[in-house]
Design goal:
With 618 residues, this protein is of the alpha+beta class. The chain folds into 3 domains: 402 residues, no CATH class; 63 residues, no CATH class; 132 residues, Mog1/PsbP, alpha/beta/alpha sandwich (Protein Transport Mog1p, Chain A). It contains 19 helices and 12 strands. The strands form 3 sheets. It has a 7-stranded antiparallel β-sheet, sandwiched between helices. A 3-stranded antiparallel β-sheet has the order 3-4-12. The chain starts with 10 loop residues before the first helix and ends with a strand.
């Protein structure tokens, strides 16, 4: 049963995820005044210029392109604050680097993505209904190719910045990043997912005679995609890295369905409007609190290696779909009476794609570390200054990135966007014969341009297929290695009997217990573990000096003379056993979450000790 007292916490407490109490962290007390700074700044930008319709009047354009673009601009700003919150006050960070102030934005990422998905589905359906031949003529070129170009351009940019910031890569890693299959820009996952749903929309509405049937198959595709995502464990080497890839995806077909039935739905909600507005707002908060409790204490997206992991993930996604639906529904109801819009939000709505791809760079450049692989450019600990620096940098970066993206896109699809009617009108005094010759020449030039554009698109499609094929081959060769033994810095790591390799890449390895007689957790190897400020640890003694987040920390020497620092950290509500192992120049980490819901703590301890005792020189 869910304790009903959980619902009566204050809204601020429910939205705020804390790792330490005021007594445990003096900085927490000092930062209370900043808790709403990000919310205030975001709210001021969002509602400045908003105007009400007055009694008995409605915003007839609440689903127009201008209004939905403004809403997407608001959501893009919210996502930037969400990522800043994850960088400054997420509970998985060490208390040494946690600075509160943006906590309210931590749990809202999937809701804001839901806004994008809903608006994408709605806009796609409206384009289909208002533009004849929309799905037949140049759909790939208009809707999908620009997204692919933007994605790959951001991957190139992020790879270059990673190298400049000091991330160590070999040639294979660089190619892996540049292919987009490993994702140098981890925030760009949306641009991987949405083209598949555009193609699903195109296929459904071209193959099905009835729109209702097409929408049904679009929902089926969405559910199939979600089940696939739930079957894939968290990993950091390829696509589908975690639940954020699917925990709001249902909003896309819902947006399509809303576009199909917009008029009757609008009439329905105008009757008893204030009741429905309050209902959606109250329902959102109640469902949000319920979902947070269920995901934290009952279901959740983790539990790798357990029999119920897929049902738990699907149930978690289901309730978050509902939360996102109420969140989006409230804003669309609000727009029935309030017209949003100012110059800043209109501009942000127009450059949402570029802002979304670029802002993450500045979140990392001014955070405590750069993507946990190097020191940041400038660490800004003060939250208001950090917000200002990230937003200023993001706006400047967006302008530059957008110019480059549009130039490249225009070069690649030159001549294919101009309609045949867009010709220079002949002068009124030119003879008819000369006008006819000029028209024929221009028609021939147009045909040549279209043919060149068609050839370019063919090569682009071939290149995309080639990259995907090479990526699959790379995963088969390098991503699914089944050899249990791992060598790190001249040391051999071998898990106990009964363990099999679940995942392996250039940095991580995950071993899962497949035996029947015990219930230990997954053993995770991280070859490039770093400290709070992205520094390497020289040896086990350095770990003991600097890692104040570990309890029961001690120096341990195994039977082969290998030194390691071991202790417990916290991962949510459960302890995480850690062994920091010396390997000459630095240390690597072996860890296991001892989640008593799924594993036996005694078996976990035994498995970790056996693994540590078997580490030996090659």
């Amino acid at each position: 049963m869910i304790p009903w007292s959980w619902f009566f916490r204050s809204g601020r407490e429910a939205f705020t995820i804390r790792r330490t109490t005021d007594a445990e962290n003096p900085e927490r007390r000092a930062s209370h005044g900043l808790d709403v700074s990000g919310l205030f700044l975001s709210g001021a930008a969002d509602f400045f210029g908003a105007g009400g319709m007055g009694k008995g009047k409605w915003n007839e354009e609440y689903t127009s392109l201008k209004q939905t673009k403004t809403l997407q601009g608001i959501s893009a700003l919210g996502i930037a604050f969400h990522h800043m919150a994850q960088k400054t006050c997420a509970p998985w960070h060490s208390p040494m680097v946690i600075v509160h102030g943006l906590d309210v934005f931590l749990p809202v990422g999937y809701m804001l993505v839901g806004v994008f998905l809903f608006c994408s589905g709605l806009g796609l359906y409206k384009s289909f209904k208002t533009k004849p031949g929309y799905l037949e003529k140049g759909f790939f070129r208009r809707r999908i190719l620009p997204l692919i170009i933007a994605f790959w351009l951001s991957e190139i940019l992020y790879t270059v910045v990673r190298l400049l910031m000091g991330e160590k890569m070999n040639a294979l890693t660089v190619l892996w990043y540049l292919s987009g299959l490993h994702m140098a820009n981890t925030n760009a996952w949306y641009l991987i997912v949405i083209p598949f749903f555009y193609l699903a929309f195109q296929a459904a509405f071209r193959l099905c005679r009835r729109e209702g049937t097409a929408i049904f198959w679009l929902f089926v595709f969405t559910l199939g995609y979600t089940v696939l995502g739930a079957c894939i464990d968290h990993q950091d080497d390829w696509w589908m890295r975690g639940e954020w890839w699917y925990n709001s995806i249902l909003l896309f077909p819902l947006g399509v369905m809303f576009g199909r039935y917009e008029k009757p739905v609008t009439r329905f909600f105008r009757k008893g409007y204030w009741f429905w507005l309050i209902f959606f707002l109250a329902g959102f908060f109640l469902l949000f609190w319920q979902s947070e409790w269920l995901i934290d204490h009952r279901w959740g997206y983790y539990g790798e290696g357990t029999a119920l992991k897929i049902p738990h993930r699907l149930m978690s996604a289901g309730i978050q779909w509902t939360v996102a639906l109420f969140f989006v529904g409230f804003f669309f109801l609000l727009m029935m009476k309030v017209r949003f819009g100012n110059k800043a939000l209109s501009w942000l709505g127009a450059v949402t794609l570029d802002f979304y791809l670029i802002h993450g760079l500045f979140v990392e450049l001014f955070g405590y570390s750069f993507l946990d692989v190097a020191k940041s450019l400038v660490y800004i600990r003060n939250v208001p200054l950090y917000i200002a620096a990230v937003l200023v940098g993001s706006v400047a970066g967006t302008l530059l990135f957008r110019r480059l993206r549009l130039w490249i896109t225009g070069r690649l699809i030159k001549g294919s966007d101009r309609p045949a009617a867009a010709r220079v009108t002949e002068g009124p005094n030119e003879p008819a014969a000369e006008q006819a010759v000029l028209a024929q020449n221009r028609a021939a030039e147009k045909q040549k341009e279209l043919e060149k554009a068609r050839i370019r698109l063919q090569w682009i499609r071939r290149l995309i297929l080639l990259v995907l094929f090479l990526g699959v081959c790379g995963i088969m060769l390098f991503g699914f290695q089944k050899n249990k033994v791992r060598t790190v810095g001249g040391l051999i790591i071998e898990p106990p009997e009964g363990y099999e390799t679940r995942f392996s890449d250039g940095r991580y390895a995950v071993w899962e217990y497949t035996g029947k007689d015990r219930k230990p957790g997954n053993i995770v190897l991280d070859e490039e573990i770093r400290g709070d400020y992205a520094q390497n640890f020289a040896d086990a003694d350095a770990v003991l000096r600097e890692c104040d987040w570990m309890t029961d920390a001690e120096l341990y020497v195994n039977p082969y003379g290998v030194r390691m620092a071991r202790g417990f950290a916290r991962n949510g509500d459960y302890p995480e056993r850690r062994y920091y192992v010396e390997n000459g120049k630095a240390v690597f980490l072996l860890s296991m979450i001892e989640d008593s819901r799924y594993y036996s703590p005694e078996d976990c301890e035994q498995a970790m000790l056996q693994t540590a005792d078997r580490i030996r020189k090659k």
